[in-house]
Structure formats: structure tokens, C-alpha cells
Amino acid sequence: MCFAIVLPVLFARPLLMLISYVAGSQLHSYVLLVPFVSAYVLYLRRDQLPKNYRTDLPFTLVSLAAGLGLLAFTYSLEFTGRAPGNNGRIVLLTLSFLCCLAAGGFFFLGRDWMQAAAFPLAYLIFIVPMPDAMADALEMASKSAAAEVANVLFHLSGTPFLREGPIFQLPNITIEVAQECSGIRSSWVLFMTSILAANLFLKTPWRRFVLVAFVIPLGILRNGFRIMVIGLLCVNVGPQMIHSLIHRRGGPLFFVLSLVPFLVVLRWLRRGDVRSPQMG
Questions:
Q1: Under a CB-based contact definition with an 8 Å cutoff, are residues 53 and 125 in contact?
Q2: 191 and 215 in contact (C-beta within 8 Å)?
Q3: Which helix (H) or strand (E) covers residue 194, if one does?
Q4: First to last CA, the chain
Q5: Alpha-carbon gap, residue 268 to 208, rounded angstroms
Q6: CA–CA gap between residue 279 and residue 225 (Å, rounded)
Q7: Which of 119, 161, 219, 255 lies at a CB distance of 3.0 to 4.6 Å from 186, suitable for a disulfide?
């Protein structure tokens, strides 16, 4: 308990930087919920945790070395004038904190306890903000995929249009699928949700994999569907719909809609998961 108090105090400045950074970010605001999710899952599994604690020195030293190494590397970059950007610095310091936290777990609680609590502890990796390079790559890939899906949906809707790359020329408006239309935040949160749901509700590894893999095409389809809906609203209602709330603030609505097929697939996989032991 003392270690759990002292470590955040020692990392107070990096953790406050992290909180300030994610609170002001549209992409990383989910980070604030991750520790509570991990704590809740750990609470649910409290009866499965070993009561006998034994120090695991090798894993303690490896985790501590990784944490202190990341910390030293970050400050050495600043000392030599090669300091990373704000995002990069927070990523490195947050990883350092997690490694030191793991070192404390292996030292005070032991390998058996850490293994029993592996999932909620590993889920804390999501408090590390997505590096800018990773976010840019995912946004570009998601934007391109969403444009392809929107292209198919516009064809299916019978709407006349011309397309040149990410630009769609509709009867009374031209829209461009910009990087901001990638929906990467909703897709990433859906991905995190699928990992949590797979671990909580499914037992078979392949079923867990199927659920997590399913959200990738689901996220792309959702983004393409959103582009089509906005385009059809502009065609049938008026070009002013490009400035409507459904465009500027419609992300949560389409995210909720994507949960419907997600829950259907989860229920289907769960029914098979429950039935399998009885059949065996």
C-alpha cells in the first residue's frame, strides 16, 4: 500500500502532464476511464487472486530496469537537446511508470499474483496515449478504407456522383473525406471495448479473437456509412447539412449504432461458448 502511494507521488509530474494532455485531447480522452475499468475488473476477480505472496526477484529487476531505463532515456534526450514532442515525452514517461508499477507488483505480490491479475494489469497499457506517428498512420488507413466503403454505399443508394480519390461530387455539393473523418477515436474505443468484452464474457481463445477482429471491418463500415448519411442529407435536405450537428457532433450516435451488430456477434459467440462444454 505504501508503494502504491509513493510511486504516483514520485511520478506526480508525468502523471499530471498525462491527465492534462488527455483531458484536452479529442483522441485520447478515453484514457481517464482506463484505470477505473482495470480496477473494476481486478475487483471482480479478487477471489481468484492468491493470498500467499512471494517476491519474484528476476521479474522485479527486469521490470524496474525497463522503467528506469525509459525514464533515463527520456531525460537524456532532453539533456542533449533532442527532446521528443509533448506526445512522445508523455508516452515514454507513462510507459516508465507502468514498468515501475509492474516491478512493485512482482516484488511485493509475486509472479502467481501478477499472473492471476494479468488482464486488468495489462489493460492499463491503454493509459499510454497513442503515439502521433501511430495515430497518423491509422487515420490515413481508416480514411482510405472509409472512402472505399462510402463509394460502394453511394452506388447501392442509387445516388449519382463522381469520385476522385477522397473527393465525392454529389448533385449539389462536393465533399472530401478528410483525415478528421477517419473516426479513429471511436474505432479505437470500440477495439478496447471488444478486448474487455472478450475477456469478461468469452472463454474460448478463438472466439475472443473473432470478436476483436470483427470490430475492425465494423469500424470501417461505420465510418463509410456515416459519410454516406451526411452526403445523402446534403443532397436531399440541403448543402447546409454539412454544418449540422450530425456531421460535427454525430460521432457518438454512430458509435452507439455500431454497438448493435457488436452485441449481436458477442451474444452469438457467447451462446456457442456456453454450449461447447456441455457438448464436450
A1: no
A2: yes
A3: helix 184-201
A4: 44
A5: 12
A6: 40
A7: 255
Nearest to 201 by CA among 249, 265, 135, 255: 265
- CA–CA separation, 202 vs 198, rounded Å? 5
Q: How far apart are CA 20 and CA 25, in angstroms?
A: 9
Nearest to 37, CA basis, from 27, 49, 25, 45: 45
Cα separation, 119 vs 121, whole angstroms: 5
d(CA 180, CA 175): 13
Q: Which amino acid is at 80?
A: T
What pTM value is reported for the model?
A: 0.87
Distance (Å, rounded) from C-alpha 269 to C-alpha 16? Answer: 40
Helix residue spans in the chain (DSSP H): 2-10, 12-23, 34-44, 57-79, 86-108, 111-116, 118-122, 132-157, 184-201, 205-236, 245-248, 251-279
- Which of residues 81 and 194 earns the better pLDDT score? 194
Residue whose cell numbers read 480514411: 143
Alpha-carbon gap, residue 89 to 59, rounded angstroms: 25
Phi–psi pair at 96, nearest 5 degrees: -60, -45
Cβ-contact 157, 119 below 8 angstroms: no
> Could you give the CA distance from residue 114 to residue 55 in angstroms, rounded to a whole number?
11
Concatenated DSSP letters for 77-112?
HHHTT----HHHHHHHHHHHHHHHHHHHHHHHT-HH
Give the residue from 9, 114, 124 showing the smallest Cα distance to 60: 114
d(CA 10, CA 63): 17
Query: If phi over 0 gives left and psi between -120 and 50 gives alpha, with beta otherwise, what is residue 81?
Result: left
Q: What percent of the chain has pLDDT over 90?
A: 54
Q: Which of 70, 168, 51 is nearest to 116 (CA)?
A: 51
**pLDDT one-digit tens code per residue, 33-63:** 999 999 999 999 999 999 888 889 999 999 9
At 15, the amino acid letter reads L
* C-alpha grid cell, residue 165: 480519390
